[in-house]
## 1
Amino acid sequence: MADFEPVLLRRILKNASPSLEAYRGDGGYKALEKALNTMTPQQVTQAVIDSKLRGRGGAGFPTGVKWTFLPKGHPGPIYLCINADESEPCTFNNRILMDQDPHQVIEGIILSSYAIGATTAYYYVRYEYGDATRATQKAIDECYAAGLLGKNIAGKQGFNLDIFVHRGAGAYICGEETGLIESLEGKRAWPRIKPPFPAVEGAFRKPTIVNNVETMACITHIVERGADWFRSIGVPPDPNNPRDNGSTGPKLFCISGHVNKPGVVELPMGLTVRDLLEKHGGGIWEGKKAKGAIPGGVSMGVIPDTEFDMRLDFNGPAKYGCLGLGTAAVTYFDQDTSIVDVLYNICRFFEHESCGQCTPCREGTGWMHKIVDRIRKGQGRYDDLKILEEVGDQIGITPGTTICGLADGAGWPVKLAVRKFRSEFESYIKNGKKTHSLTLVGAH
Amino acid sequence: MGVLSEKIVADIKALLSRYPSKQAVTLPALHMVQDELRCVPLEAIREIADLLDLAPSEVHDTMSFYGIFRDEQHKLGKTRLWVCRGLACAIRGGEDTLATLCDKLHVKPGGTTPDGQITVEFAECIGVCEGAPAVLIDDRGRPDVTPDKVDGLLAELRR
């Protein structure tokens, strides 16, 4: 197979300027021109459905199908929210797109707004991404000046769109789409009970589509090159499973942790965790061996190196018990890393970020954090592993005890770590082993 | 005379047309106030509420949900330094960076130096994982801040 040629990172890899002029010089806004002159909004939506694009934010829901959930013939307004609250630990692909090639994303936003009939798009960016926010705002300003935003965009009578950047305030839960909507409305980011789904009743009680930044960038290329091109990349849907949407299109993978070459790479889905490490991450640092990895952001679970044959597509991780592909951010840790420390870090994160609305999540994440903390201090009890697994199994939308999926993501790494690395946990509890590799400062 | 400057009042009013509800301007307004005053005083909450037709408790409810905002008792220093303790940074020495910073500045995480120059905090993943261990200087990411680079960073911030 010929080497895959990056599409989403094409301009970034050659250090192209993020300016509108440079973007246009590279063929930018040709997709918008094509859509406005030759395609109806329905045809754009159909192209996205045909491409089998699945949302890049973590859940992997088919984007075009999501769009069809909007009520037909709605008088408006319909809102588009761009989810740039990229807060899943170890994930940074959206930041790179916004920072270094903001127009690619904005073109996708304009195309998507055209398709779904939105006249206002809210670009919700996490506060921590200051530089990316400023790069995006600058690009939006350029678009207004060039007639690509505002009224009668690019000369198309009656096609109006405003994009407003809205800064978050440091809360992981705002990445949950209804949490994001609540936050946008100026409230605490407590996720809503669904249904109604945002497509029916979302921001300001109007039909709303929430899509990820990388998803928007994909839309640009689907319109430009066609659904067939997009579908030809990656893993096609399983013909024997009508519910499988496959894993099509280019995908950004974040590589971090104990590797020689951390960074973001663009590849077709379906490669293994091992290939990502060895061919793209430069192997484990300091000549060491890998002990395991987090396959897609910390909420997806954790695997030992014996499971590095796992394929990184929308179906692969589940075959090893993981929650899913998540954000496709893979973090590797070396042989000297304590799994108890890794899990402690993850549990601390989720206790900090649980929004507190649902009791099982608010209390469960606290329990798990406390229990793993005492294990790492050599004070673990024999029952602790059982309690950890029980809590991990009982919190979340999968068992039906919480409103949103944060708790699933909090419980998943806990139960997988305990099941896949049980002997190491037991050695802490039996022998009173303690870990000092992580300093305790900040652990409060 | 309130605590909100005329400019902030004008900037808040200018945002109202962007959203179908006034309440949606809550977060932008809180950011503006904190950027200028390095905290959000109670009086500012009342004035924001007044501008947005809300009860002060509604503004406070939103503000207190987000860890980013500080009240008058916990005013930020001139620079806010966030040290990432997310997994990718932690396993590459992020917590050592935090410990070193706290040692050198004689503050606990969340604290501010007595001269009001630097506030040190831990942050959950800041999305600069390719440059772990990373920090945020206010809202700008800085990669590869290992403990041995802490002195240089502090000198730079104090210049």
## 2
Amino acid sequence: MSIGLALIFGVMRVVNFAQGDFMMLGMYLTYYYAVVLGIDPLVGALVTIPPFFVVGLVLHRVFLARVTGGGDPNREMDAQLILTLGMSLIITNATTMILSPMPRAIRTAYATQAFAVGPLLLNQARTYAFFMALCLAAAVYVFLTRTDLGKALRAAADDPEAASYQGINVRAMHGVAFGVGIALVAAAGGLLATYYPIEPNVAVNFIVLMFVAVVLGGLGSIPGAFVGGLAIGLVQSLTLLVLPLQLQNVGVFVAFLLVLYVRPQGLFGRRARTV
Amino acid sequence: MSAAQRVLTREKISAGIGSWLSSFTLGVTEVAERQQVPWLTLSYADNITERGFKYTFQTSPVSSAQAEQALDLVVELAKRNNQPIRKAALIGDNTAATVFFFKPLREKLLQAKGIELVVDEVWTPPLPDATSIVQKLRATQPDVVFYGATNFPDSIQVLQKVKEFGVKTHIQGVGAWLVTPEYVKTVGKELLDNIQAVVAAHPLKGQEELVKKFVQRTGEPFMTQDPLCSYAHVWLIKEAAEQAKSADPKAIRDALAKIDLTTGPAASTLSPGRIRFDERGRRIGAVPLIVQWQNGEPFTVVPVNLATRPVVWHK
């Protein structure tokens, strides 16, 4: 979930408040793949990637490019906050109107079965989702570091002006980043749908933690977002050993504040140069 | 609250019904009181009718009363099935109805019956992960779990974990949120079988025709508390308006405060068949029912004289 958000921020400097809503749409698409076409949700989650990549490209071309300036570093960026917030509201409410607020869920055998590892029980759906998320994260890493397109994306993120002097179309790179970011979170939603009910407001349960993971890892850092996400899950679970259930997320936010106190740039973030 | 504000200030409303979640009802009834519009609610939380409001009428038994009555019924059922309750668990969110249900159980009722409270877990929705809760159930093996997860995803997570961990404890839900058709679609009827819920209303013996009409008209697989209460509330407003001979909100409020119905659709829907309110707006004599999932459908099992199926006790 967080890697897509980090990618969009890292390349475009856009804080995408609608990221959780694309996750929700990914859950619905996976649901319809399962119910209508009989596709297993673990496969369906991957099949959400191409359509959401296209959706991301189109949304960037039609809306975001107008307010982010397509790479112009001198362009005012405030409007993108309002735009993504507006997109979030429209997506949530349109989904409620069209698909009803009624919760849905994909019934899979592995949602209620566990792998027994000694005394430990590992939920099968979560285990599959975890390993598929690992694979997706690895694929993103390979894409960014081993392909020309990935390298161009990183160049556009590091210095849009210098990248454009090298013949990189920064506006197009922003579109690709947004498309990949949206596709990744939609796939994450599909994986989540294997064990979590789907409803139009489901994003609010995850969006804050998504942002915490990205900021914890270092804004715009892909490995940071990955480690940040893992750290949050770990802290959430370990918090229960010492605090009551009601304070489960308190542990996450305390850890978050402590990390930012020691490393304001996040775990993997780079400190900005100051004069 | 803003929706209630909008409706009650822009439209000429004689009386209103709702909400579903007690936490919402607390807000909506505040608006109705300010606008002096009588408001009928099926919500359970005690504090809905503890604020001295004149325009709020609560037809359901309040949570604390439900806790006491439900505990008696469950203990009695268990005894009758030779499986006395010695250990209990409370798990649920901190929404108003659940809080008021758990409070007397935790503070006095369980202890008074000699039942040990082995798990007491309350969370603020959404629940991040149900694993730790269900692990505690697995470790302590309570005889009954009082279960109040009003947020659907939270509730599903807990039920899925219960199945995953093989926990066989008897589950006693707190409220009608646990007996909606969405549960069958989501977790399947096998997982729901024998799970019980204490509710304010559910189809009773003799209401088969009403249920049949409801199913035909709505396409829903069965009727539950929420449409039943709405049905009763509409009839109640009609009776009050006729007794007041007016559609004026204040006249309807006064008629509701004095009403004493023992016949008609409203009275026959809300057990035990009589509708009158005390000075706080609570229905006098309101008693909860126990509903049990059996083969993918929830049936009234207690009280026995109005039950549509005999209870099946968890083995």
## 3
Amino acid sequence: MKVFVAVKRVIDYNVKIRVKPDHSDVDLTSVKMAMNPFCEIAVEEAVRLKEKGVATEIVAVTIGPKAAQEQLRTALALGADRAIHVETDERVESLGAAKALAKLVEEEQPGLVILGKQAIDTDNNQTGQMLAALTGLPQGTFASAVDVDGEKVQVTREVDGGLQTVELTLPAIVTTDLRLNEPRYAKLPDIMKAKKKPLDVKTPADLGVSVGSRVKLVKVEPPAERQGGVKVGSVDELVDKLKNEAKVIS
Amino acid sequence: MSILVLAEHHDGALAGATAHVVAAAQQIGGDIDVLVAGENVAAIAEAAAKLDGVSKVRVADNAAYAHLLAEPTAALLAELAGDYSHVLAAASTTGKNVLPRVAALKDVAQISEIIAVESPDTFKRPIYAGNAIATVQSEDALKVITVRSTGFDAVAEGGSAAIEAVDFVADNAQSTFLKEELAQSDRPELGAAKVVISGGRGMGNGENFKLLDGIADKLGAAIGASRAAVDAGFVPNDMQVGQTGKIVAPELYIAVGISGAIQHLAGMKDSKVIVAINKDEEAPIFQVADYGLVADLFQALPELEQRL
Ligand SMILES: Cc1cc2nc3c(=O)[nH]c(=O)nc-3n(C[C@H](O)[C@H](O)[C@H](O)COP(=O)(O)OP(=O)(O)OC[C@H]3O[C@@H](n4cnc5c(N)ncnc54)[C@H](O)[C@@H]3O)c2cc1C
Ligand SMILES: Nc1ncnc2c1ncn2[C@@H]1O[C@H](COP(=O)(O)O)[C@@H](O)[C@H]1O
């Protein structure tokens, strides 16, 4: 079975972002970029499926600027067999990404597509669900376990009240939650080998899709800053303040 | 304008989140209908009809919508969406699962987790784990939106909207519900609790989370956790507060043995009063805490329980 993984280049999760002084967007100049953490989990899951003999080929896909090829190379180093870069400098939101992915799914007919549940820049949490709609495939979102069994896949989902398990017919779309697995690190020889693995570059026009967004970013502001408060010296003082100053307990 | 709100419900009862979503719909303005989809949902529909501001409750009561699986539920919403300018749902795991699918079926964008309505087409939403607030404007004719409950005060109950059945039945051969393991708890729901006390990696193990129980009992609090505590297996995933867990904004949030990573802060920094108990006085959690206690939690917690 062929497995697609969608990987997005985003700001490194450790970086605290700053808003541009003109409030037009977040300032990403010389900020450390990385593969979205949920996409790392998606790649890892695909690699494990290959190790189990379930997946036969792993194709990593990204839609974004030239620089996003770095993340494709990372996916290749981690175990993807080849990569597809849909190159664009437009601001690509979830619907645009899903449209490009849907076209590739149509062309290549993977049995499973694994995406992250959420990109940590836009915090959208949409692309997998949209891809499922556009391809007419079932979806298993926020997965903490994925078991492929013949023509079906069982997906355990992290839902608000606990865990839910659904069974989907293949082909299907899965999005990863944090506890699905713990991604491995790429080893140096694999990073070297990844440089020789095939990486196709296409444009949205080649696929016949437009990836631009109809949601305009009007402005971006810093959130209301919380003022750090006081340190209290004892539990007694804490309880006193909560009762008599903050009045949140009685 | 006319707005369709997907009702959130669990265990045969309307979930509190729906009243917050209706409040967001009121700010957009126009007629508000609520869709109750599920199996045996008559009582839920009646509860929804009492929410202030609701004109009509539409009920799709059919086994096809049991557990609100994404495939049939999105097909139903896409079928009904033609009558509306906006489709709204809570930014719960149900809303997040279903609404993007609806949006793509209608070839429109989806706007996630709004916290404010600026106008019928312009909304505010947090991005980058809440480290920036974006104002976004949708150019689509249909707006499909999930609503962060903490951004809107719930509407009251005093209405008596008409209830009408929806006949459309979506067929779904692709996905089947197998099972659910839901956490059982007598405590208030995390998202709705007035007080939340959360433990982090500093708790050391799952057994030690019991130290929070007595305090939670006395304060009527829900118990939450950091991701590190969940990952370490101390507590189940539904307790995780943060960017990728639950978003809470109680009157009082008590963080115990939690360092204060941005991903955790994203889930609780809109709380009214924040208390941090941590033995490391440099822990970043103290930068957002109204009251910080530098102490070993194993001493502070029993003492706190006793003083309350
Ligand atoms: C994509 C992504 C999403 C994430 N989403 C979330 C999320 O939704 N929610 C979330 O919480 N995290 C999330 N994280 C993880 C986050 O980055 C942090 O790793 C996590 O919040 C740390 O949890 P912690 O504060 O419990 O642990 P630590 O950072 O290890 O802190 C433990 C604290 O306990 C204190 N301590 C230890 N012993 C004691 C004692 N005896 N008495 C008092 N204090 C003590 C220590 O001083 C320390 O400050 C996410 C990370 C990623 C990459
Ligand atoms: N531009 C993109 N290129 C490749 N994958 C993407 C892109 N945008 C989103 N995705 C995938 O969709 C997931 C969820 O993103 P989102 O729904 O946009 O929050 C990510 O973790 C990726 O797997």
